[in-house]
């Protein structure tokens, strides 16, 4: 498992937005949050990228719906998309204002 994490961290993509413009994009921290979750550091993953859990919920529902149709799927996806987008925007705004 440690070998997988070391290899994963060696191949993380750099943020082009940060390299070009000098500030984080709305997706900065997602790869590191996934890496932290794999290690079992769930709270640290949330602090790194707060939208990681709504994103997981969104993709889980989408994945489940592929195999078994979910009643009220469109409403669930809409609500989760709004929650996810709001979390991304709010956390990005707070991170930008603090730094």
UniProtKB/TrEMBL annotation:
<keyword id="KW-0812">Transmembrane</keyword>
<keyword id="KW-1133">Transmembrane helix</keyword>
<feature type="transmembrane region" description="Helical">
    <location>
        <begin position="46"/>
        <end position="67"/>
    </location>
</feature>
<feature type="transmembrane region" description="Helical">
    <location>
        <begin position="79"/>
        <end position="98"/>
    </location>
</feature>
<keyword id="KW-0472">Membrane</keyword>
<dbReference type="Pfam" id="PF10825">
    <property type="entry name" value="DUF2752"/>
</dbReference>
<protein>
    <submittedName>
        <fullName>Uncharacterized protein DUF2752</fullName>
    </submittedName>
</protein>
<dbReference type="InterPro" id="IPR021215">
    <property type="entry name" value="DUF2752"/>
</dbReference>
